Inverse folding.
């Protein structure tokens, strides 16, 4: 046993090595990405590992591995589970012969997500067990137990850490690494793996029959615990349980829920011994609804009567406030304090030298009064530049663009989508747009990498998750194969070239695709690309502010003149924009 | 009933707050103490405001409540003011006097607070102000400013300076070990005059 100070996701990755895992797949998504990022680069790797093109593809791969008797892990963020929901629902029927753990990382407060959905609801819906860790140590231990549980009941298990587990750190006890030696073997069994109606009806019944034993086993497993100390009780799940444990006074009973489905008899035995029960959990009232079902005349305080919010993330101070309001704490130890007002905000922005800023600049210049559907990635930050009008889910830029076009909107419609998002779920939308004759321009922002989530490779990068060379997909050929006849590839750093291609696209009808191709500025720097910095010639600068409005963090303004700071990556776009020609390569004049 | 010493480290994505928080976590392990932490991930590279919570002797959750921070380390002057409400009564602030104005100030022509105004607003706290950029240059690399900050703050933490220095040496890239050790010492020297 060794103690380490680790990120939650690093501890989870280590647990995979201890289990050991034989097969890993997933699609990057904050806050889940570091698990595969840690596992894929280990030189002692004995397991198979891949970044898949989307979560559905990832889950189907992992499911197949588990059918072959392997221990398979599939990772994604919560909204990825929507994409993978199709195989999830029926995999509960077919079951698995190895262990299948689906890590779906939830993001209360939507720190970097489009919604706050709760993966526990999916587990409930699919009737599969769900483990919900309250600390990093528990996340580590649970992951190993999740495999055992999956094998014991021949069912996929959803493992649901939240952002505050994945991206927290703590001292963790780690076990020994075991080298995976298993080889998969597919044993044919059509009644299990071919879900025609006659088979699936039987499988559905089997799934339902497993439930009582699962509930009983989960109590024994020790992740659902309770202690009776008085007439009032607090029931809490996930990280909220940890906040409660820090605050709970003597004489108050406590129940911690970390595993679902909850055994009703066990829950009822606890709840009914109290006068009132306060239920504290993030997001959906999963536990609260169960408590209400068994409560009888016991008073239940929670989301449904306004004690606990449905939205957002809980915190120590939020939980203290809830406990005080519910009469569990006599005083709020963490009274609200107000921050200093009216400070200029510092939101995340596109990097200095980012290709997206250059592409957006040209798009806005050519397509002045247009509709700009966009997608999910770094380029969603184009919102700040006024060139992102819609974002809903992965791949929904092209589909939303064609829907708006077909609805009769007379303005030009030009949408933006990243390379990884295009390969994730964009292609189907493009095919559909061509097939149904949409009149739209699509700009694929091609930076050769999945940048937002930490620079994971994709089929467009030319390497696999493990760094093995792979044939890079041709975006041009994919678009042409979908039936697009106008496909132009252009370097967005070349503002004139980019605007010319945009103008050519604007003058045509039908689906037009522009591939704005340039390496992500961070991967370029890591790869050793040095372009030399630019500087402002103070005598020539007229202080007109054109470069400032471009919005690059490398450009500052003081004493009526622009100045370029050391964030400059040498993309030279601002030099092309300056009407006075005052921006020049450093050391040249 | 407070059982942990709570440190909040704030700055701008790319300034090295994550490495600095790892160094403190490692120092806790060296002293056989428990530690919990939380930080901003994902968007950090994109120039946004970032925060790292570190709870020395922490046994529960990773987040520190506003008004409860014992020691605030800020890598930027404006961020110190933004997070100043996290500091508890009588807490300490160690602040890099360097100010990076957000790009939004230039783009939207916002009223920007001046260095003097921020320092005046911070003066009601127990404040140790230093030029970590300058000191890091002296140590041999501008990238060592995070370690300069740890050196300066080492007086105000319940950790032995040797444990922190050892952790610096074990976590920074090997070829920068000497520069960072120097950065730690220079940071300590710079903060000698501060009242902790």
């Amino acid at each position: 046993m060794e103690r380490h100070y680790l990120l939650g996701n690093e501890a989870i990755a280590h647990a995979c090595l201890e289990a050991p895992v034989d097969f890993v797949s997933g699609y990057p998504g904050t806050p889940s990405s570091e698990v595969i990022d840690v596992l894929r680069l280990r030189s002692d790797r004995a397991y198979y590992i891949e970044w898949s093109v989307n979560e559905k593809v990832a889950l189907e791969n992992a499911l197949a591995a588990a059918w072959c008797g392997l221990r398979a892990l599939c990772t994604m963020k919560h909204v990825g589970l929507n994409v993978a929901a199709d195989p999830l629902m029926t995999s509960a029927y077919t079951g698995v012969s190895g262990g299948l753990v689906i890590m779906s990382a939830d993001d209360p407060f939507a720190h970097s997500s489009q919604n706050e959905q709760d993966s526990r609801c999916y587990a409930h819906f699919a009737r599969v067990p769900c483990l919900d860790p309250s600390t990093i140590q528990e996340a580590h231990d649970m992951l190993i137990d999740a495999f055992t549980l999956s094998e014991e009941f021949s069912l996929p298990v959803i493992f649901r850490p939240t952002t505050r587990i994945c991206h927290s750190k703590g001292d963790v006890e780690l076990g020994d690494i075991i080298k995976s030696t298993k080889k998969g073997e597919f044993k044919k069994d059509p009644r299990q793996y071919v879900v025609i109606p006659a088979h699936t009806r039987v499988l559905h019944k089997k799934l339902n029959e497993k439930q009582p034993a699962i509930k009983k086993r989960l109590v024994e497993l020790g992740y659902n615990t309770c202690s009776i100390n008085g007439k009032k009780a607090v029931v809490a799940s996930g990280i909220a349980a940890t906040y409660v444990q820090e605050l709970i006074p003597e004489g108050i009973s406590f129940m911690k829920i970390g595993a679902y489905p909850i055994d009703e008899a066990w829950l009822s035995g606890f709840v009914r011994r109290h006068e009132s029960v306060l239920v504290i959990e993030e997001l959906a009232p999963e536990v609260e609804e169960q408590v209400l079902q068994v409560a009888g005349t016991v008073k239940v305080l929670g989301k449904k009567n306004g004690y606990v919010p449905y939205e957002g993330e809980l915190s120590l101070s939020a939980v203290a406030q809830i406990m005080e309001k519910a009469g569990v704490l006599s005083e709020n130890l963490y009274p609200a304090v107000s921050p200093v007002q009216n400070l200029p905000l510092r939101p995340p922005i596109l990097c200095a030298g980012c290709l997206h800023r250059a592409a957006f600049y040209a798009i806005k210049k050519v397509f002045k009064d247009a509709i700009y559907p966009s997608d999910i990635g770094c380029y969603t930050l184009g919102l700040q530049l006024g060139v992102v009008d819609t974002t809903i889910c992965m791949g929904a830029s092209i589909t939303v663009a064609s829907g708006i076009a077909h609805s009769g909107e007379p303005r030009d419609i030009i949408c933006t989508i990243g390379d990884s998002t295009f390969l994730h779920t964009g292609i189907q939308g493009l095919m559909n747009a061509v097939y149904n004759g949409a009149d739209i321009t699509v700009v694929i922002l091609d930076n050769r990498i999945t940048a937002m989530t930490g620079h994971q490779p994709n089929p467009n990068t030319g390497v696999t998750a493990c760094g093995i060379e792979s044939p890079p997909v041709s975006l041009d050929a994919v678009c042409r194969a979908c039936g697009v006849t106008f496909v132009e590839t252009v370097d967005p750093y070349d503002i004139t070239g980019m605007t010319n291609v945009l103008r050519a696209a604007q003058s045509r009808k039908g689906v037009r695709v522009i591939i704005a191709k340039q390496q992500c500025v961070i991967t370029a720097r890591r790869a050793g690309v040095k372009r030399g910095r630019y500087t402002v010639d103070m005598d020539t600068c007229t202080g007109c502010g054109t470069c400032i409005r471009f919005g690059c963090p490398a450009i500052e303004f003081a004493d009526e003149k622009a100045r370029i700071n050391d964030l400059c990556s040498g993309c030279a776009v601002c030099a092309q924009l300056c009407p006075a020609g005052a921006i020049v390569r450093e050391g040249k004049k | 009933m407070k059982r942990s010493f709570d440190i909040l480290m704030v700055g701008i994505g790319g300034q090295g707050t994550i490495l600095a928080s790892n160094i403190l976590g490692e120092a806790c392990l060296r002293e056989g103490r428990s530690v919990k932490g939380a930080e901003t991930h994902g968007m950090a590279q994109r120039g946004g405001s970032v925060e790292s919570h570190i709870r020395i002797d922490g046994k529960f959750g990773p987040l520190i409540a506003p008004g409860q921070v014992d020691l605030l380390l800020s890598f930027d002057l404006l961020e110190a003011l933004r997070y100043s409400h996290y500091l508890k009564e009588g807490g300490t602030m160690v602040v890099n006097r360097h100010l990076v104005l957000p790009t939004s100030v230039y783009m939207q022509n916002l009223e920007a607070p001046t260095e003097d105004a921020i320092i005046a607003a911070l003066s009601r706290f127990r404040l140790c102000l230093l030029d970590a950029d300058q000191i890091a240059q002296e140590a041999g690399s501008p990238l060592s400013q995070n370690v300069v900050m740890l050196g300066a703050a080492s007086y105000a933490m319940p950790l032995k300076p040797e444990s922190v220095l050892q952790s610096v040496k074990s976590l920074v890239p090997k070829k920068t070990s000497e520069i960072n050790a120097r950065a730690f010492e220079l940071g300590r020297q710079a903060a000698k005059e501060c009242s902790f």
The longest strand of chain B covers residues 87-96. The radius of gyration of chain B is 16 Å. Chain B has one domain: 5-190.
